[in-house]
Write a structure and sequence with these properties.
- The complex is a heterodimer of chains A (512) and B (204).
- Chain A has 512 residues and is α/β, with parallel strands linked by helices.
- Helix content of chain A is 36%, strand content 16%.
- In chain A, helix 2 (37-46) links the parallel strand 3 and strand 4 (57-60).
- In chain A, helix 12 packs across helix 14 and helix 16 (472-499) packs across helix 17.
- The termini of chain A are far apart.
- Chain B is of the alpha/beta class and 204 residues long.
- Chain B has a single domain, classed as Alpha-Beta Barrel (Aconitase, domain 4), CATH 3.20.19.10.
- Chain B contains eight helices and ten strands.
- In chain B, the strands form three sheets. In chain B, strands 1-8-9-10 form a four-stranded antiparallel sheet, with helices on one face. Chain B has a four-stranded parallel sheet with strand order 2-5-6-7. In chain B, strands 3-4 form a two-stranded antiparallel sheet.
- The longest helix of chain B has 14 residues, at 186-199.
- The radius of gyration of chain B is 19 Å and the shape is globular.
- The chains are: A alpha/beta (512), B alpha/beta (204).
């Protein structure tokens, strides 16, 4: 019988059918971080249970660790140090693999996991973190759980799991220049809704996905949870095998051939049945940016905010627009920004930083914008510095940080500030996600960089935009008008900012 | 784990879609390595005008007369989406919530509820609207009754059947510890891993 990739992975890990669609699955590897892993480790200790297989358990410090130079256990978040010391103590006691703050392998859990060869094709993997779906990019069945389920997996090396349905999303055709995996996933979520993937494992397929690098596939799968999917998946192929080879926790040389032979069977069979299929023509995808407080609120940069189709939606939209300081007729292109953030498990890998550096070369961040780059891992940071990427960022006016989750979310420490408008390469634009009152616009790293330099939301490649406000040949005047208006706005704002708000924004960023 | 068998309580309608766990408990409200001390931060962005000073926002339903002791939430679709933080469920539980009725749930949040003795109940939009209308009319008097064994919700003249998976129901009705239940299958687990090690030795 032809099987989907998900079905194969499921069957290979099913220990017992518990009835009613629930199975006991073998969990090959567990990753923890200091924010939610600490409580799982502590709770396990309190129950006097032991970790079943400590050498397959990994832990990093990423969520609340400071990203300032010369950092130690002190966090920008008040009381955060306790999470770090508790995690360290429990991890050392349990004998698991800990990537501590000054370990060269430290970084954001879902950036470290692939780069260390911890996430592998064909494995099951969990982490008490919703973006664990990122690792489906390698053909791993990986998903986020709560701390109690993490404790279960630590103690038993298994998890009781309801089997999800299967969906395939094919990206066909060709991506336009400057359009990235981030735009692909925002496109999907904006068309099918933030709950469009609920109950499904989503396999991303099609010629465009096959041509994506592993790092781009990681971005694509990262936001499967924003689509409410159980997780995302990409079938492993030669690109995957080449990426994995030689990584520290990948199969050793003497197992390599057997591993490859196994991994080559991990794809959906030709006639496999999916419960739902979606096909997207990539010619329809332009660079995206969000206007509201859900990742589904993504539109083309030059497009207007969509009109709500019913009263409920209109009410929800009104609330979101109110939070975002916008109205239904607002245009995003040309909207002045206060902050720009490049980082997070979505977009902070070396390829992201290279792409942005190529764009930033010789350009400057607008004086009204506080711009920050936080590399996804200490390895990414070192590799970028070896290529001189840090210099390009710094010379353009970006702050260059140590790795961590940083301002992808607000833990009580650092924020751009209330009412500040931020363009961000992260994954969530929820109310208050980047700080109370902070207004987040999600976009690709390239769009973030282009907007940081302009001082307002704009595309890096306006010539690829099909909408009127972006098309230079049809609306050159409109753009210059918009740009002029925004610059004027920014200038008049900057004059006030210089003494008050802007210095507050900078202070919030630098002092927490 | 706490049991859930039957419950009768005041229901607070928060009829929005996509209420995320960042809203249920913002990261800044997770102050210590603990499953407690979280109720105060529940819905902080909506519950307080000034979260630091804890100044209540009178427009938020849990601050309104009649809803003070609510133990049931009525919500829209995709409740508890976003971050996996189990703190969202711990905060709801500590505040006194026993059951969340929504059109749909974030899958991690749903699991976390079951693991902590809170009943996540999926109902049709129309049914939720009817329950909300009933509760809002006279919140203190118009109690909603839930029977998990019968899979039945009652509210005045309203009677609605709901579905719950047998395995979740068993866990909730008996307050079982899933680790204990799983460890009864230790032999099966060991046998699986022995076979698996032959196929995938690089993982052992």
């Amino acid at each position: 019988m032809p099987l989907t990739l998900f079905e194969k992975l499921w069957r290979q890990h099913a220990i017992a059918d518990l009835g009613n669609g629930e199975y006991l699955l073998n969990i090959d590897r567990v990753f923890l971080h200091e924010r939610t892993g600490s409580i799982a480790l502590q709770s396990l200790e309190a129950s006097k249970r032991k970790i079943a297989e400590p050498h397959n358990v990994f832990c990093t410090m990423d969520h609340i660790v400071s990203t300032k130079a010369g950092r130690g256990d002190h966090t920008e978040m008040p009381g955060g140090e306790a999470f770090i010391t508790a995690t360290r103590e429990s991890a050392n006691k349990a004998g698991i693999n800990l990537f501590d703050i000054n370990d060269p392998r430290q970084g954001i859990v879902h950036v470290v996991s692939p780069e260390q060869g911890i996430a592998l094709p064909g494995i099951t993997m969990i982490c008490p973190d919703s973006h664990t779906c990122t690792l489906g990019a390698l053909g791993a069945l990986a998903w986020g759980v709560g701390s109690t389920d993490a404790e279960h997996a630590l103690a038993t090396k298994t998890l009781r799991v309801k089997k999800a349905k299967s969906m395939r999303v094919r990206f066909e055709g060709q991506l336009a220049k400057g359009v990235s995996a981030k735009d692909m996933i925002l496109h999907l979520i904006s068309h099918y809704g933030a709950s469009g993937g609920a109950g499904f494992v989503v396999e991303f397929a099609g010629e465009v996905v096959r041509d994506l690098s592993i790092e781009a596939r990681l971005t694509l799968c990262n936001m499967a949870v924003e689509f409410s999917a159980f997780t995302g998946l990409v079938a492993p192929d030669q690109t995957t095998f080449d990426y994995v080879k030689g990584k520290p926790f990948a199969p050793a040389e003497h197992h390599w051939q057997a591993a490859i032979e196994h991994w080559q069977t991990l794809h959906s069979d030709d006639e496999a049945h999916f419960d739902r299929e979606i096909t997207i023509d990539c010619a329809d995808i332009q660079a995206k940016v969000t206007w509201g407080t859900s990742p589904q609120d993504a539109i083309e940069i030059g497009a207007g905010i969509p009109k709500a189709i019913d009263t409920n939606k209109a009410q929800a939209q009104q609330k979101a627009l109110h939070y975002m300081g916008l109205n239904p007729d607002s245009e995003l292109a040309g909207l002045a920004i206060d902050g720009a953030f490049i980082g997070s498990c979505t977009n902070s890998r070396l390829s992201d930083l290279r792409e942005v550096a190529a764009f930033l070369e010789g350009k400057k961040v607008a004086s009204s914008v506080a711009a920050i780059c936080v590399p996804g891992s200490s390895s990414v940071k070192r590799a970028a510095e070896a290529e001189g990427i840090d210099t390009v960022f710094i010379e353009a006016g970006f702050e260059w940080r140590e790795s961590g989750c940083s301002m992808c979310f607000y833990a009580g420490g650092e924020t751009f500030g209330s009412g500040k408008r931020v363009i961000s390469s992260t994954n969530r634009n929820f109310e208050g996600r980047q700080g109370p009152g902070t207004r987040t616009h999600l976009a690709s790293p390239l769009t973030v960089a282009a907007s940081a330099c302009a001082g307002y939301i704009t595309s890096a490649n306006p010539d690829t935009c099909t909408t009127e406000t972006c098309k230079p040949e049809t609306s050159q005047k409109d753009i210059s008008h918009l740009a002029q208006a925004t610059q004027d706005k920014a200038r008049s704002k900057a004059s006030q900012f210089k003494d008050t708000q802007y210095s507050t924004a900078k202070a919030a960023v630098s002092n927490g | 784990m706490d049991k859930f068998t039957q419950h009768a309580g005041i229901a607070a309608p928060i009829l929005r879609n996509n209420i995320d766990t960042d809203t249920i408990i913002p990261s800044r409200e997770m102050k210590t390595v603990s499953k407690t001390g979280l109720a105060d931060g529940l819905f902080a962005p909506w519950r307080y005008v000034d979260a630091n000073a804890r100044t209540p926002d009178p427009t938020f339903i849990l601050n309104q007369a009649g809803f003070e002791n609510a133990s049931i939430i009525l919500a829209g679709d995709n409740f508890g989406c976003g971050s996996s933080r189990e703190h969202a469920v711990w905060a709801l539980k500590e505040y006194g919530f026993k059951c969340i009725i929504a059109e749909g749930f974030g899958s991690i949040f749903f699991r976390n509820c079951v693991r902590n003795g809170i009943l996540p109940m999926v109902l049709e939009k129309q049914n939720i609207a009817e329950l909300a209308e009933f509760a809002e009319a006279e919140p203190q008097k118009n109690i909603i009754e839930i029977d998990l064994e019968q899979q039945l919700v009652g509210a005045g003249n309203i009677r609605v059947r709901f579905k719950s998976d047998e395995s979740d129901r068993e866990m909730l009705l008996n307050g079982l510890d899933p680790i204990d239940v799983t460890l009864k299958l230790s032999e099966d687990i060991a046998a699986f891993q022995q076979r698996d090690q032959m196929h995938r030795p690089w993982l052992y």
